[in-house]
From TrEMBL:
PANTHER family: STAGE II SPORULATION PROTEIN E, STAGE II SPORULATION PROTEIN E-RELATED. NCBIfam families: sensory_box. Signal peptide: none annotated. SMART domains: GAF, PP2C_SIG. PROSITE patterns: PAS (PS50112). The keyword Hydrolase applies. This is SpoIIE family protein phosphatase. It comes from Streptomyces flavotricini. Transmembrane segments: none annotated. CDD domains: HATPase_RsbW-like, PAS. Residues 161-191 form the PAS domain. It holds the Pfam family HATPase_c_2. Keywords: Hydrolase.
Length: 841
């Protein structure tokens, strides 16, 4: 009987094979079928590879659980492929040296039962794996081992039990959790687990805490910040469950990391029957020293190593350091019996003295460190007196150093040093292999991190947003806190521009502390350098990286960690790469801001300073320049006083848009004012402007222009003289709704030398409206439709009785609603209206 099912589909991509493996593994582990997970994953991998890689089709995976086993079905959409049958003289199902049919050969070898089913559109390959028979009540068992090889644990074992609700907040906290971490239940209930967890933040490695809490089952190491502020390393097992109402939650079991054997899932071992039938294999010296199973991660392996070394020589403490690539320094990676969190990732030189005992390349025994101060820098002020250090070497190359120490002098002799060296030789290759694997993951993660950072930084030209991105990318991935100093120019002092801390409540306090410290000196040399000035004010380790762009120091990126932590060299190298990208993005944002400010200042100088108040007239102007960031384009307008009782107005359109058109706009507007105030009439003003445009030569552009003079009349009307040089005709709206052109078309400017222009006169009566627009209004398009002169006339007929401002606004609204796309041309609207006489005026 089927008791549970799970299904997933995978696209025909190479990464789908790994995704299918993970799906089957998580599903079977969630069902408690750990004994058959490995076989199911192998078979799924081969069959999904056949579907998505070789057949190039989508694969559908279905897992069916029953009481005594599981059935897995893989379906694809390539039914015409044949089942590889056995022919005379051939091996059954497939040749292991060929790709074709290997999945079916594995099914025959591993599955309890299997088969292939064809339909018109699908091919199903299924296999069944039965659970192994065990004694009643036994789920898994390990072999009998000597007591001395059993994992270590405290005499009083404490297992902290937490329950996390659907919002990732702590809903249950047992007494052992209170004892281990120091928090009473009332202090943590309702708080997110992320506030207490010191989750690994190395870029590109590990799973985030939010993702881990969504998995059906998770096991691994992280830290919990205790009530005293220290980070307590723990080994955890998470299981996602649901209650009777279907609400999910996560049950978390946590123990001290050095007691991980209490929770760590045992590796799959052969049955007791098979153990009895096979000859016992010789003990592996590495497994004898490290214990089996060996940790599968570098940090776990190093921590297990120092614990075993300490126990082997009955020491008070032990430590392990790894060499840098150039073998000049050693980096502290694991300690026990020492303030490990304070010393982690600290560096000491390989050659600490002139004799062999001062070099990490040779074994050394120190009877009393008090007699040779500084011989082992790591142990200063720790109370340790006697120490053994031995090198870790691979193919003659120094890869690390292993040491044990005791509080009493004279504890160790050369015999103990030989035992420790023998252990170091057994583990050196495994440690180096794990280190190289971690380094490769770090490098891949670093590349991914830098690609994402570059995309984010390239996506903005806003200075403040660039500063925020710089800080947010470094905290908490690279550092606990970050401060960005900027330098406006070479004569300016560094200015604290942005501060970020992983604990938001500490940002203001950190900013106040940094404000009281002199900023770091700007240095052109690339690379991270320590900043000791913050040691007393802020505490912890602080490094400064210069922000170099275009051969100039434009600021400093400051990274800090608390007093118990140190920066890894790989993190500093990654921060240096990030600082180069961030500096260029910050300088680009600065240049863009400067150019934008200059452009806007120049553009504003081309706009009229303001429209004058004309007695007895309503005047309204609406102007829209095309293009992002443009305030002035090829369309322009102006309303200005000529002399007492006379006002000039103009609305024009220069060929094109943007800065080139704006340059001719400035020439035309200023020339019109100057010529009009010289007392010239409309035709003469435009003829001289035409000559000035033609004098520009290759830079000249043709121009359409409506120019006029307005004379308010004592009876309440207005006399207008207009010249329309190739421009859309002005429209006159009467109070009864009639709309008529108010001028005749004449030649445009900037094309021919000889212009014969004439002036037309009209009188606006009370209630009349004169509407002047550029072709950005009349040529507004939506597909093949265009607003045109007729459309503008229809809009204007609905404007009777409206003020000049209301008329201009209605026209603009009609233009915007005519098409969904933003306008691609400049647009100017100029409306005049003679108010109607009110009774009693």
């Amino acid at each position: 009987m089927i008791t549970a099912r799970a299904a997933a589909s995978f696209d025909p991509l190479g990464r789908s094979v790994a995704a299918a493996r993970a799906f089957v593994r998580d599903t079977l582990q969630g069902w408690g079928f750990a004994d058959i997970v490995d076989d199911a994953v192998v078979l799924t991998s081969e069959l999904v590879t056949n579907a998505v890689v070789h057949a190039g089709t989508k694969a559908e995976v279905l897992c069916l659980r029953s009481g005594d086993g599981v059935r897995v079905e893989i379906a694809d959409r390539y039914p015409e492929r044949e089942l590889p049958l056995q022919h005379p003289g051939e091996r059954p199902y497939a040749d292991p040296d060929r790709e074709n049919g290997r999945g079916l050969m594995l099914c025959a070898a591993l599955a309890t039962r299997w088969g292939v089913e064809y339909t018109a559109t699908h091919k199903h390959v299924w296999f069944r794996l039965d659970l192994p028979d065990r004694p009643v009540g036994t789920r898994s068992a390990g072999p009998v081992v000597p007591d001395r090889l059993l994992p270590l644990a405290d005499s009083r074992v404490r297992v902290a039990v937490l329950q996390i609700d659907a919002s990732d907040s702590i809903s249950a906290w047992n007494g052992d959790a209170e004892h281990v971490f120091g928090y009473p239940a009332e202090k943590v209930l309702g708080r997110p687990l992320a506030e207490l967890a010191a989750w690994p933040q190395t870029p590109g490695t590990g799973t985030g805490i939010a993702e881990a809490l969504r998995l059906s089952r998770w096991e691994g190491s992280y830290g919990i910040r205790g009530a005293d502020g220290r980070v307590i390393p723990v080994y955890a097992s998470h299981l996602r469950v649901r209650d009777a109402h279907g609400e999910p939650s996560i049950v978390c079991l946590l123990v001290h990391d050095d007691e991980r054997a209490l929770l760590q899932t045992p590796v799959r071992v052969a049955s007791t029957d098979s153990l009895q039938l096979t000859e016992p294999r010789p003990a592996d010296p590495f497994e004898v020293f490290i214990g089996s199973p060996a940790p599968d991660d570098l940090d776990g392996l190093l921590q297990r190593t120092v614990e075993r070394a300490r126990d082997m020589l009955d020491a008070d403490s032990a430590f392990l350091l790894l060499a840098t690539d150039d073998e000049t320094e050693l980096e502290v990676r694991a300690t026990t019996g020492l303030p490990s969190t304070r010393q982690r990732f600290a560096r000491v030189p390989v050659e600490a003295g002139t004799n062999r005992y001062g070099s990490a390349r040779m074994p050394a025994v120190h009877d009393d460190l008090a007699a040779v101060p500084g011989a082992v820098p790591l142990l200063e002020a720790t109370g340790m007196r006697s120490v053994i250090t031995v090198p870790l070497k691979v193919e003659g190359r120094l890869t690390g150093s292993l040491g044990v120490a005791a509080e009493n002098p004279g504890r160790y002799s050369n015999a103990e040093a030989l035992r420790l060296q023998f252990a170091a030789d057994r583990i050196a290759l495994a440690v180096e292999s794990a280190r190289l694997g971690e380094l490769e993951r770090l490098r891949r993660g670093s590349l991914s991190f830098l690609v994402e950072a570059s995309d984010l930084l390239a996506g903005t030209l806003d200075r403040d947003q660039t500063l925020a991105l710089m800080a947010q990318m470094t905290v908490p991935t690279l550092a606990t806190w970050c401060a960005v100093y900027t330098i406006a120019d070479q004569s300016s002092d560094p200015y604290l521009s942005y501060v970020l801390h992983e604990d938001e409540e500490r940002i203001d306090g950190l900013k106040a502390l940094l404000s009281r410290v002199s900023p770091p000196e700007p240095v052109r040399e690339a690379g991270a350098r320590p900043w000791p000035a913050t040691a007393q004010a802020v505490g912890g380790e602080t490094v400064v990286l210069p922000l170099l762009a275009r051969n100039r120091v434009i600021g400093m990126l400051t990274l800090g960690k608390p007093s118990e932590e140190h920066f890894r060299q790989e993190i500093l190298e990654l921060a240096e790469d990030l600082s180069r990208r961030a500096a260029l993005a910050l300088d680009n944002a600065r240049l863009y801001s400067e150019r934008t400010a200059i452009s806007r200042s120049l553009q504003r100088s081309l706009l009229p300073p303001g429209s004058p108040a004309i007695p007895g007239m309503e005047v309204e102007v609406i102007y829209r320049a095309a293009g992002e960031g443009n305030e002035v384009g090829g369309d322009f307008y102006d309303v200005f006083p000529i002399r007492d009782g006379a006002y000039g107005f103009a609305i024009g359109d220069v060929c094109g848009t943007g800065p080139e058109a704006a340059a001719v706009t400035g020439l035309a507007r200023h020339a019109l004012r100057l010529l009009a105030r010289e007392g010239l009439g409309g035709p003469a003003v435009l003829e001289r402007l035409n000559a000035a445009i033609l004098d520009e030569g290759a830079r000249s552009r043709f121009l359409t222009l409506l120019y006029g003079e307005l004379h308010p009349q004592p009876d309440g009307g207005a006399l207008m003289k207009v010249v329309c040089a190739g421009h859309p005709l002005p429209l006159r709206l009467r109070p009864d709704g009639r709309v008529t052109p108010a001028a005749d078309p004449q030649p445009l400017l900037g094309v021919i030398d000889d212009l014969d222009l004439y002036e037309q006169t009209l009188t606006l009566d009370p209630g009349d409206v004169l509407l002047c627009v550029t072709d950005g209004v009349t040529e507004r398009r939506e597909g093949t439709r265009m607003l045109g002169d007729d459309g503008l006339t229809e809009v204007l007929t609905t404007c009777t009785g409206l003020t000049a401002g209301a008329v201009a606004a209605r026209v603009l609204r009609a233009v915007e609603r005519f098409a969904a796309e933003p306008a691609s041309d400049d647009m100017a609207i100029l409306a005049f209206r003679v108010p109607e006489q009110r009774m009693g005026d």
